[in-house]
Amino acid sequence: MSELGRAALLVTLGLSAYAVIAGAYAAHVGRRRLARSAQNALVASFVSTAVAAAVLVAALLRNDFSFEYVARTTSRALPTAYTLSAFWGGQEGSLLLWLLILTGFGAAAVSINRAWARDLIVWVVPVFAAVSTFFALLLVAVASPFTTQPTPADGAGMTPSLQNPYMLAHPPLLYLGYVGLTVPFAFAMGALLSGKLDERWLIATRRWTLFAWTALGIGQLLGSHWAYVEVGWGGYYAWDPVENAALMPWLAATAFLHSVMIQEKRGMLKIWNVLLVILAFSLALFGTFLTRSGVVNSIHSFTQSSIGPWFLGFIAVVVAVSLGVVIWRLPQLRSTTKLESPISREAAFLYNNLLLLALCLAILWGVVYPMLSEAVRGEAVVLGRSYYDFFLRAFGLPLLLLMGVGPLIAWRRASLKSLGTTFRWPTIVAIVTGVALLFLGAGRSIPGLVAYTFSAFVLATIVMEFARGTRARKALGASSWPGAFTSLVSRNRRRYGGYVVHAAIVLFAIGVAGSSAFDSVAEAKLARGESMRIGDYTLVYRSLSEREASNATEIRATLGVRRGDRDLGTLQAGKNAYTIEQQVSNEVGIRSDRLTGEDLFVIAEQIDPNGTVYFRVFVKPLVNLIWLAGLVFLLGSVITLWPDRREQRRLVARASTVGLPATR
Amino acid sequence: MTLALVLAAALAVACVVVVALPFLREPEPESDSLDDLDEGERHRLELLEARDRALAALRELEFDHRTGTVSDEDYRGQVGVLRRDVATALQELEREPGEGRPGDGRN
Question: What's the CA gap between A389 and A380, in Å, rounded?
Answer without folding.
Answer: 20
